[in-house]
Amino acid sequence: MGDTVNNEGAQKRSFFKGLKAEFTKIVWPDKDTVTKQTIAVVSGAIALGLIIAIIDLIVKFGLSFIL
After folding, report:
1. Kindly report the CA angle at 59 between 43 and 53, in degrees rounded to 5?
2. 60 occurs within a structural domain
3. pTM
4. Which residues does 7 contact at the CB level (< 8 Å), separation at least 6?
5. What band does 11 get if pLDDT is binned at 50, 70 and 90?
6. Cα–Cα distance between 11 and 17 in angstroms, integer?
7. Containing domain of residue 34, as a range?
8. Measuring CA to CA, which residue among 18, 1, 22 is closest to residue 10?
C-alpha cells in the first residue's frame, strides 16, 4: 500500500491562520447600534408575550363559556 504523510500539524496551523484572517474582517457594531437592537428585541419579545397571553385568555374564557 502507499505511505501516508501525517500533515495534521500543518492543517491545524493553516486552519488557525485562516480563522485569524477571517476574524479580522468582522465589523463590530458600535454601542448605539447594539443598544437600539437590544431595545427592539426586548420590546418585541414583550409584545409577543402579551399577544400570546391575550390569545390564551380568549381561548380559556371561550372554552369555559362553551363547556
Report:
1. 20
2. yes
3. 0.61
4. none
5. confident
6. 10
7. 28-67
8. 18
What lies within 8 Å, CB to CB, of 43 at 6+ separation is none
Confidence label for 12 from pLDDT (cuts 50, 70 and 90):
confident
What the block records as the C-alpha cell of 8 is: 495534521
The single residue listed with the C-alpha cell 480563522 is: 19
Number of domains in the chain: 1
> What does the buried/exposed string (b/e) look like for 21-45 if buried means 16 or more CB atoms within 10 Å of the residue's CB?
eeeeeeeeeeeeeeeeeeeeeeeee
User: So what's the pLDDT on residue 3?
Assistant: 55
